[in-house]
Amino acid sequence: MAAPAQKKLLALDTNLLFDLAAEKDFAHAFREVYQERGYSLVVPPTVIQELTYYALVKQCAETPLALKALQQMRAWGLTPFDLKSWATASRSNFPKS
Question: ∠24-27-31 over CA atoms, to 5°?
């Protein structure tokens, strides 16, 4: 019996989330194409931290985009992930020496 296929993950960077928030067509096309291909689009904690910084601390031209990106991530089908749980899960794929 074949093992179930693992979900393909694709980590996004802050710039793509800014582009999604700015409603740039190429960014939404990228997101839609990879989601249709079965990828789970994930947002690393460093991106969440950077967006939060722009949204709450920096107060600059990117502030409204950062706020929108944080608010819309789930609607766009993006999943924040925790590096610690990911590292634990990936370690289980390697045999112990």
Answer: 140
**Which has the higher per-residue pLDDT, 18 or 4?**
18
Spell out the domain ranges in the chain: 8-82
Buried b (16+ CB within 10 A) or exposed e, 31-58: beeeeeeeebbbbbeebbebbeebbeee
- For the whole model, what pTM was predicted? 0.79
* Residue whose C-alpha is closest to residue 16's, from 3, 7, 29, 1: 29
Q: Is the pLDDT of residue 9 over 70?
A: yes
CATH class for the region spanning 8-82: alpha beta
50 in Cβ contact with 16 (< 8 Å): no
